[in-house]
Amino acid sequence: MREKRNRKVDFNRKKSSSSSKKRQSREINKNDFRKEEKRPKKYISKKRRRRRARILLAFAIVIIVGGTLTALSLTVFFPIKNINVVDNKKYSAEQIISSIGVVKGDNLLLASDSRATKAVKENLPFIKSVDFNKKLPFTLEVKVNEYTVYSQIKYNDKYIVVGDDGLVLEVSDKFTKNSTEVRGVTPKTESIGEKISFKEDEKETILQKTNKIISAFQDKELGRITLINYENMHDIRVTYSNRIVMLLGSDSYLEQKLTHAQAVLTSRNNTGETGTLNLSRIPGTKNEASFIPRELEKSEIAGK
After folding, report:
1. Percent helix, strand and coil across the chain, each to the nearest 5
2. What residues make up the domain containing 55?
3. What is the mean pLDDT of residues 131-156?
4. CATH code, 117
5. 292: domain CATH number?
6. What angle do CA 164, 166, 168 make, to 5 degrees?
7. Residue 66 has pLDDT above 50, yes or no
8. By Cβ atoms counted within 10 A, which residue in 2, 45, 109, 270 is the most buried?
9. What is the average per-residue pLDDT within 50-72?
């Protein structure tokens, strides 16, 4: 009996000792787990700092290398060795190159066409703009955009040459072919580079009237107007191709007048016939354009 009791006591002692050890082990495991929970946060934080440091270092290297390459490209690399001029008619390539403010040896990437346009217009007024086409590594192509001579104002035996936007391009003793001569008006300015204006300007300026008449003829595909005479604003006379003088009257009802003119001119275009075409009585009537053959006087021919 005693032996059985002793065995029971020993078993209970072992059991309590075992459960005590398990509790201690659980507590240790819990403490270890808490430590393990804390460790990763420190580890992750260090890892993030290292990663940020590497990113910042790489970014700094990229900036330094990029800045160095940019500085070299704007100073050492890409010197201009060739300058080619295209689409120039009025001026020679040498004249344009000497005026654009760019020379061989300048950096190709720093060449500015806006600065060149400003510089070139001071010396070469027929140039509207220049555009740079940079062909790496060494070639600069200069594309020239010139004004079209739109009209020439005859005044005091000289011709004031006007561009397509109304700017004075030149004052010349000679008439330039393939443009429209304007007579019977008094210009307020002859200064090159300024917009033309006239003493006869009213609500509709002479420039606007001229543009309207020329555009109307172009729309009808009637060919080239060589002369517009404004000596009498109610009897505007237009010379067509230095062959036929058209009596417009005023510039009102221009569309209807030119519709009638179109039929007459089409039938006489290949004849070389000269004369007067009266269009002044057409609006509001049943009258048709009347053509009278005759020789033109010198005053009715452009450039005379």
Report:
1. 40, 25, 35
2. 1-77
3. 92
4. 3.10.20.310
5. 3.40.50
6. 105
7. yes
8. 109
9. 71
